[in-house]
Task: inverse folding
């Protein structure tokens, strides 16, 4: 069966989840769970995610996250592939670790988001692993309850789902959790499920018009597919530098920075293949991969680089999109 392409929205809210192949309880080993959570944390910092809820069970995981400018697929590919390779190496194992590619459901409703946070944090209770989610080490509720400084969940952001002020929202959230634990007050909290049986679990979002999340923030940036040669040519045009210069043997600081900008933008934002970029830039694919890694690191550590990357991204999106919009106007005038 052919997979439908994923359409992902910049700044979008997602419920992301997946299961281990054959339901194998690999996360029953706390060491493996810690390794997986640390990989999520590294990716969160690298890609600028906001984590609103999370839980790792014995054979599956749930994440509720808001992405930044780096598309969701980049981070999830890193998490699943990196952990899978390390796990297979530790255990002398071969083959795929995950049941499938990750699932992601786009969230647009505030009330649904609050229910989803409760669902994820109450998952260990629903599975009858613990009676109180605060006693479960590998979930976000424990971090909220104990106000942990090194929390994976962004507590203040999450609490906005339950009230306008920090204290009121905290009381409301903890009250909902207590009600979910108490059978007399539950009112369907534990039986609520984020997906109905008729709902397709793969991501397929219409991005034909601008979208806002429930806080009024823009979540729309559509990036069309571009051939590597056209992509590099357009970016170089925006930067005022020739493609032949980037493909030369020049090693000055500015050229090195420009190469990292072009490659990082292509790999992280525009789904460019490293090998194809290497062909256009007349470089070894390993060198281009190294540039992409250096660019990702610099994006985190250097605010100026990150700002220039975002500026270039939006300029390219506008440059690619404007002729298409103009053509539509011309045909309808």
Result:
């Amino acid at each position: 069966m052919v997979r439908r392409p994923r359409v992902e929205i910049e700044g979008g809210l997602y419920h992301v989840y997946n299961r281990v192949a054959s339901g194998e309880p690999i996360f029953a080993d706390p060491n493996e769970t810690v390794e997986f959570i640390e990989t999520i944390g590294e990716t969160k910092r690298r890609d600028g995610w906001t984590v609103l809820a999370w839980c790792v069970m014995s054979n599956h995981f749930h994440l509720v996250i808001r992405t930044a400018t780096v598309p969701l697929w980049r981070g999830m590919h890193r998490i699943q592939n990196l952990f899978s390779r390390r796990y297979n190496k530790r255990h002398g194992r071969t083959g795929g670790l995950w049941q499938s590619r990750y699932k992601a459901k786009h969230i647009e409703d505030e009330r649904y988001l609050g229910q989803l946070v409760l669902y994820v944090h109450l998952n260990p209770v629903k599975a009858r692993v613990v009676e109180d989610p605060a006693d479960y080490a590998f979930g976000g509720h424990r971090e909220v309850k104990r106000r942990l400084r090194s929390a994976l969940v962004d507590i203040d952001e999450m609490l906005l789902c339950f009230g306008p002020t920090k204290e009121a929202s905290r009381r409301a959230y903890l009250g909902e959790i207590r009600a979910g634990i108490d059978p007399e007050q539950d009112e369907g909290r534990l039986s609520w499920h984020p997906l109905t049986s008729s709902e397709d679990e793969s991501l397929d979002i219409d991005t034909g018009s601008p979208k806002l999340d429930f806080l009024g923030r823009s979540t729309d940036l559509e990036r069309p597919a571009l051939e590597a040669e056209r992509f590099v040519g357009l970016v170089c045009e925006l930067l005022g530098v020739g493609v032949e210069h980037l493909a030369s043997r020049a090693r000055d600081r500015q050229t090195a920075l420009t190469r990292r900008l072009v490659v990082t933008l292509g790999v992280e934002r525009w789904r460019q293949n490293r090998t194809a970029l290497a062909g256009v830039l007349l470089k070894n694919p390993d060198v281009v991969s190294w540039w992409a890694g250096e660019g990702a690191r610099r994006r985190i550590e250097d605010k100026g680089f990150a700002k220039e990357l975002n500026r270039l991204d939006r300029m390219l999106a506008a440059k690619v999109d404007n002729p298409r919009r103009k053509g539509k106007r011309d045909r309808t005038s």
About this structure: DSSP finds 13 helices and four strands in the chain. The chain has a mean pLDDT of 83.
